[in-house]
Write a structure and sequence with these properties.
By secondary structure, this protein is mainly alpha-helical. The protein is globular and about 40 Å long. Helix 2 packs across helix 5. It has a single domain, classed as Globin-like (Orthogonal Bundle). A two-stranded antiparallel sheet has the order 1-2.
Length: 141
Amino acid sequence: MTITCTEPLTPPVNGVTGHGTTEEISLYDAIGGRDALVAAVENFYGRLLADPEIGPFFPEGVTARHRAYLVTVLGEALGGPERYRGPDLAKAHSHLGITDHHFNLVAGHLDATLEHLGVPRDLTNKIIAIVATLRPVVVTA
């Protein structure tokens, strides 16, 4: 997915000011690339583990592998160079009994994470919309 930027962008994590002319830029680049995703995933999982309804889905905590998978899934979904080659997402979530309520809670934590990191609202909305397409894959109850 690409977006057209007509204003300068300041990626929220690395502070590099971007593009002053109209050009195509991926959401991945607009939010600051891999470094921004790594920071977002770290913050996001902290929120999930602290949530009394979502934390129990991670009884062993969140491993480096979980973090790497999510960075890669999001990186690919947002137009970055990453290519996810991990477990099938539907199969990996099928036994968890995830409901629409759980999905909505997780989406709220993603929204809060992106806001915390200073991602502009219009980009956050686009990211949430992309992630929402995973609902039928992970909601099983």
